[in-house]
Amino acid sequence: VCFYANERLAVAYCGTVEEERFFYLKEDLWALGYELEPETAGELFIHLIQRYMDIGLRPIESTLTSASRLLGDYAVMVLFAEPELLIATRQRCPLAFCINNNLGFLGSDLTALSQLSPIVMQVEEGHPVVLRPIKPLFRE
């Protein structure tokens, strides 16, 4: 798993992207004025998300649009600073989610996750996990 971050978001990325697609997307970003030299798919993914946020897409739309442009086998988790939001999605790579004592866990190993919670949910391709913090209804 590789981790990348900037002031607005952080990405944990595991997997591969087709090499031809990687260079095509990199050239697209260069043509749009983004001066960057991503060497990995995770770095490219964070720049793609940033691009879509720069043109006004919301975090969920930015993440899913970026994911749809990558061709490969991967799982990705994106943590946004504002709004506080976590989005995880996958393409031809296992990803599952479980909750135990108000803590959420994401992973690709179903056996390991089943040790944390009796209920483990597989993330379907094209159906992201979207988590937001719970805000208290009443303040003391």
Protein traits:
single chain, 31% helix, alpha+beta
Detailed description of the structure:
The chain is α+β, with helices and mostly antiparallel strands and 140 residues long. 31% of the residues lie in helices and 32% in strands. It is built from 4 helices and 8 strands. The chain has a 5-stranded antiparallel sheet, covered by helices on one side. The chain has a 3-stranded antiparallel sheet with strand order 6-5-7. A hairpin with a 2-residue loop joins strand 5 (96-100) and strand 6 (103-107). Helix 1 (19-31) runs parallel beside helix 2 (41-54) and helix 2 (41-54) packs across helix 3. The longest helix has 14 residues, at 41-54.
Distance between the termini: 41 Å
Strand order of the largest sheet: 1-2-3-4-8
The quaternary state of the protein chains shown equals: single chain
Helix count, DSSP H or I runs of 4 or more residues: 4
| Quantity of strands, as a count | 8
Radius of gyration: 16 Å
Q: What does the main sheet amount to?
A: 5 strands, antiparallel
Short note summarizing the structure:
This protein is of the alpha+beta class and 140 residues long.
